[in-house]
Amino acid sequence: xxxxxxxxxxxxxxxxxxxxxxxxxxxxxxxxxxxxxxxxxxxxxxxxxxxxxxxxxxxxxxxxxxxxxxxxxxxxxxxxxxxxxxxxxxxxxxxxxxxxxxxxxxxxxxxxxxxxxxxxxxxxxxxxxxxxxxxxxxxxxxxxxxxxxxxxxxxxxxxxxxxxxxxxxxxxxxxxxxxxxxxxxxxxxxxxxxxxxxxxxxxxxxxxxxxxxxxxxxxxxxxxxxxxxxxxxxxxxxxxxxxxxxxxxxxxxxxxxxxxxxxxxxxxxxxxxxxxxxxxxxxxxxxxxxxxxxxxxxxxxxxxxxxxxxxxxxxxxxxxxxxxxxxxxxxxxxxxxxxxxxxxxxxxxxxxxxxxxxxxxxxxxxxxxxxxxxxxxxxxxxxx
Length: 384
Known about the structure:
By secondary structure, the protein is of the alpha/beta class. It has two domains: 6-21 and 156-325 and 347-374, 2-Layer Sandwich (Dihydrodipicolinate Reductase, domain 2), CATH 3.30.360; 32-155, Rossmann fold (3-Layer(aba) Sandwich). The protein is 33% helix and 27% strand. It has helices at 45-56, 70-80, 88-93, 109-118, 133-146, 160-170, 190-195, 209-212, 216-232, 328-342, 350-369, and strands spanning 6-13, 16-23, 36-41, 60-66, 84-85, 99-102, 122-126, 150-153, 177-185, 236-244, 255-262, 267-273, 281-288, 291-296, 300-305, 317-320, 373-374. The strands form three sheets. Strands 16-15-14-13-9-12-11-10-17 form a nine-stranded mixed β-sheet. Strands 5-4-3-6-7-8 form a six-stranded parallel β-sheet, sandwiched between helices. Strands 1-2 form a two-stranded antiparallel ribbon. Helix 5 (133-146) runs antiparallel to helix 11 (350-369).
């Protein structure tokens, strides 16, 4: 679902509003010589998911796979019938690869991404861009110097409910935005900290702030920070936070509260925990001068507006929960591949990834200093 090319059809079926999506431009299956040929690095649970999404994108292909764990590598090779190597340097030497997709521990993002850029490969990175803002800055600088493309997997913005929220806001259904709230509550037990959600690749790096960058905020809430920015067009100006570690191993936060001020004066808040012993709750609310909108996860949307929107009457609360399922990671890769083949700008840019890191780092700095922290501007603002 490329930005600006999606049509929403709202119809009433069995007393429920149903959202059908029609894409203005269908995904292109490019000729073999124009497809994005991706070397996938990291075969853990996220790496396997991302590789499946490359395979699902008509404009891309898994050209080779890489992992230092031989058992994972053999399975990786079998699953994708692609050349496999345990040596990253060997992957970078392949002339039949023009992009690297990194699904590795966060602390490896900077060294591996910089190597890929210096080898002339486009860089696709699992979120976050960097383990911290310094690493993020070094990655952006390396890719810009090498004149290769860089994008971060902030693909939740391609969820149909998020796309519809963006359309509602941009059409003025909520008026001028002045309030934003994120609630993200979930439980991560001992198994997660030892090997992620599936345990496919073991490693305790997620419990280390040095290796992961932080806890619930950078590991999960980064998505909501991005797609709220995408929906509203607002930039976070200043951040204040408190956080702590109460029931999780390591030194990452498992509870955090953040207050945000946006560039238009709007006020936002984040409440998040990875030790919520109940049903997971992901709830986002946006309100303004003419209405309010709520996203429950990314599959349910409700809104009230004083303005009529398409065939939905004003002054009533509308509940929309019949959204189509999409492979949003495949859409990210597809859009990147199509833009690369056409030598056109791609959607999720280095700036998007860098700003995401900047907001998160400001939150961590605020708690450590006890002061509100200004979010710095993107260093390449004039060139972006």
